[in-house]
Amino acid sequence: LIKPEQYIAALTGVPLLKQRLESHYFALAFKENYENTLNPLENILESCEAIKGSTKLFTILFTILNVGNTLNYGDPQRGNAFGFKLTTLAKLNDIRSSTKPVKTLMQYICEVIYEKSPETLQIIDELRCIENVVRTDKQIIDSLLQKLKMGSTKIKNVIELAKKNPEDPLYDALNEFYYSVEPKIEELDQFYNQTLSVFKDIALYLGYKEKEVANVQIQDLFKELWKFVQSVEFNRKTLMKML
């Protein structure tokens, strides 16, 4: 036999060849897939905690609600609102006064807050972590986590097959690897569920209804909020130059 044929012949004699190769590939890719799942989840959780813990953001949102209720006073549908959707924030830069000097509603709200408490508008530093999440794709996180869980299950099945041949070192090698990574995958799965639960609470906090939360995309929510934070910072700097 020529060398390529000898190589193929040798491979065909290796027990559980396909399972060995798949297990080896899973082990090689484990660290990268694990970190690529964990890191965005940590960023999401950090951003959610920053939002919930920001008294400045709460004050700004509460002011927006009060201004909105004042403008809609007497309107049975839009007046006396208890909250508003996050998508409302983008419209604040579109609503303009009819008298001169022309101002957007966003400018007016920032001026009202700045006159009473200039430091309240300084939210960009405590919410800068949001910028790390605006491109987060939950589908990628789901796919990577599923890959880790399925890979772990396959490893467990291969261990059972390798156990039938005591002389094969595959059993000991995979057994050690499996029991080192399985707890990490279980913890990661729990952390995933915890993070999504916290995200759901934040979505409700930011005005989404219970029935809408399941359809809220992570990157969309944080993208809307980050644009708002940047808009607040722009108006704050403008007011500092003017006053």
Automatic annotation (TrEMBL):
Residues 1-243 form the FH2 domain. InterPro entries: FH2_Formin (IPR015425), FH2_Formin_sf (IPR042201), Formin_homology_domain (IPR051144). It comes from the Eukaryota. Coiled coil: none annotated. SUPFAM superfamilies: Formin homology 2 domain (FH2 domain). This is FH2 domain-containing protein.
